[in-house]
Every structure is written in structure tokens, then in C-alpha cells.
Amino acid sequence: MAKHEDREKKPEKEEKKKVVHKGKKKRKNKPTSQKWKFYKIEGDKITREKNCPRCGPGIFLSKSGNRLYCGRCHYTEFASK
Known about the structure:
Blueprint: H1 3-6, E1 39-42, E2 45-48, E3 51-52, E4 56-60, E5 62-64, E6 67-69, E7 76-78
Antiparallel strand pairs: 1-2, 3-4, 5-6, 6-7
């Protein structure tokens, strides 16, 4: 009459299965490119900031710390002290 002894004991805590989400990922908003910051208006003329000497006009050098850097061809120009 001891039916409950025949059954296997369940572990106290069962591990939860990982849930795999499928479908589209949420779209992240990227900041807009601010190209207007690379141009200066002086009177009637528009002048461009420093361009990359390897890539040519239209590819601007970014300013970071004490150097100018081209993200396209990895050209680096250090500022003189």
C-alpha cells in the first residue's frame, strides 16, 4: 500500500529553460551625420575643413585629441607642438 514510495522524488528546484526569441529586432536610432559642421561660411565663400590627402576632397579628417584621422583609409596626422 505504499505507492508513494515507488515514485521517484522530483528535485526541489527545476532549471528553467532558456527562452529563444525569434523575429525582428528592435530598430536602434543612429545619430544623423552632421556634415554641415565641416564647412565654414566666410562672407560669400564656403570653405571646407581639412580633407584627407589620400582619399581626396569630400572625405574629411576627424579631430580627436591632438591628431586628425581619416576613418576610410586610416591616415593619421599629428598636430605639431
